[in-house]
Amino acid sequence: MNPINSDVRDRLTETSQTHLLRFLSELSTSEQESLLHQIGKTDLRLLRQIWKASTNDGSPIDAAARITAARSPGKVVRQPVSAADSERWKQATQVGENELREGRVAVITVAGGQGSRLGFDHPKGMFPIGPKTDRTLFQIFAEQILARRQRYHTAIPWLIMTSDATHAETHTFLEEHNYFNLGQDSVYLFQQGSLPALDAASGRILMSSRSELALSPDGHGGLVAALASAGLLNLLSQHNIRHLFYHQIDNPTVILCDPALLGFHAQQRSQLTTNVVRKESPAERMGVLVDINGRTEIVEYSELTPEQAACCDENGEWIFWAGNTAIHIFDREFLEQLAADESQLPLHVARKNVGFMDDRGEIVRPDDPANPNAIKLEKFIFDALPIAERTLIVEGNRSREFNPVKNRSGADSPDTSRAALSRIGREWLAAAGYEVPADQPVEISPLQALDAEELTARLKSGAVRLADL
Questions:
Q1: How far apart are CA 320 and CA 281, in angstroms?
Q2: Interatomic CA distance for residues 148 and 139, integer angstroms
């Protein structure tokens, strides 16, 4: 039997978690070692503090005062509407293109989610989204990166953050597809961390088996710790990478390594730049960027009443207009700063139903949505915004850049996303002088063209044929 360090027992006793050892004598040596390793990695005192705070009626932050203090973001680069605006965007694009040529850019894709909500029992990145082919989300992003490499004659490392649920299958999928010709040595898979679920009533850590804590991913804010623990921040520094283009797996129309966005980020020496789009209505379920007491923050839609969401400022502009696309550019040194003190990103509480093993060793599966049995903990990457000294917000072109796949049907579904990909393709063809019926699907690989100008030139030269689109 594996001897238990007295310090471990003391910590478990102090934090009311001694139940974690209830089946220890029944476990094999390897199972004992695994359980003790999980316990050793867990900050038991912090979890106890968070649970106690979650049981208080009041919030540690005065939510009402926070919303009242919110203002429309002040430092925003809006979409161009004048010749001067267009010139500014052109100059930013040139700066961004130079950053790409100099090899200072890498891509981070957050790919920890399964496609369950789409009726797809695999990592969401493997979901086929091409309007005419079975091109997957992973393939679309890989082809964008490869096309950027070819255009700017540069290296662009691709960092893919997986979860325990998606890591193995993602690795196998990329290997089977030869990393879409990017080269295995430039694609880095790394796994986000996990945190235990707590019993909502008692604060006790739940167990999923006799030897395992009930763990769940630690949220996209776990990116910072995951990059550091995988040694990737050091690797990026060695390769002189300065800018990390961050996006989530579910948006096939994101413009990866967007030169204009990179250019504005570099010009302003921003530590954290965020792409936003104007909400379609105050009721749209999107987090929004705002200024609160001189800092950039995100207010989640769930924090706002319908009346607050529709509030306008003195100019008649919605205060809460700037919808978060989850497209960011991080300064690498800023991520290193965050990694040096992980406590800067707070843990958030979500009440969920979580299956667990009870004191008799039987599995219980709660299913009362009105009274969730557990507390899950996660970090949000956008909590880095108020920590940064220099932030920037850039308004994107919503119809071009933000068409996510989140739901099985209706808004933000595979149907709407494929329709957007086809529409963008038809618009590019129209710019090249080819009219395509609105009901005809079009699919343009990034390797055929990254934008309308490139498509026009390649159709004219014969490098791309209309029949191939």
A1: 10
A2: 14
Q: What is the pLDDT of residues 250-261, one digit of tens each?
A: 999 999 999 999
The percent of the chain in helix, strand and coil, each rounded to the nearest 5, is 40, 20, 40
| CATH 3.40.50.300 is the classification of domain 45-407 | no
3-state secondary structure of 31: helix
How do strand 187-191 and strand 272-278 relate by DSSP bridges?
unpaired
Tokens of 3: 């001897």
Torsion angles phi and psi, residue 321, rounded to 5: -95, -25
Which pLDDT score, from 0 to 100, does residue 468 have?
A: 86
| Residues composing the chain | 469
Q: What angle do CA 283, 418, 129 make, to 5 degrees?
A: 115
Angle between helices 83-101 and 137-152 (to 10 degrees): 90
The encoded tokens of residue 311 equal 């509030």
Rounded to an integer, what is the distance from CA 152 to the centroid of its chain?
26
What is the separation, in whole angstroms, between the first and last Cα of the chain?
A: 65
CA distance 400 to 178: 29
Residues forming a β-bridge with 114? 123
Whole-structure pTM value:
0.94
| Selection from 50, 353, 364 nearest residue 208 by Cα | 364
Per DSSP bridges, beta strands 391-395 and 272-278 are parallel
Give the CA angle between residues 157, 446, 140 to the nearest 5°. Answer: 65
- The model's pLDDT over 132-155, given as tens digits with 9 standing for 90+, comes to 999 999 999 999 999 999 999 999
| DSSP codes of every residue in 396-425 | --HHHH-----SSSSTTSHHHHHHHHHHHH
Burial of 321 (0-12, 13-18, 19+ CB in 10 A): buried
Identify whether the C-beta of residue 390 lies closer than 8 Å to the C-beta of residue 269. yes
Measured CA angle at 384 (ends 115, 51), to 5 deg: 75
pLDDT of residue 64: 82
Give me the residue spans of the domains in the chain. Answer: 45-407, 413-469
CA atoms within 13 A on the CB side of 404: 15
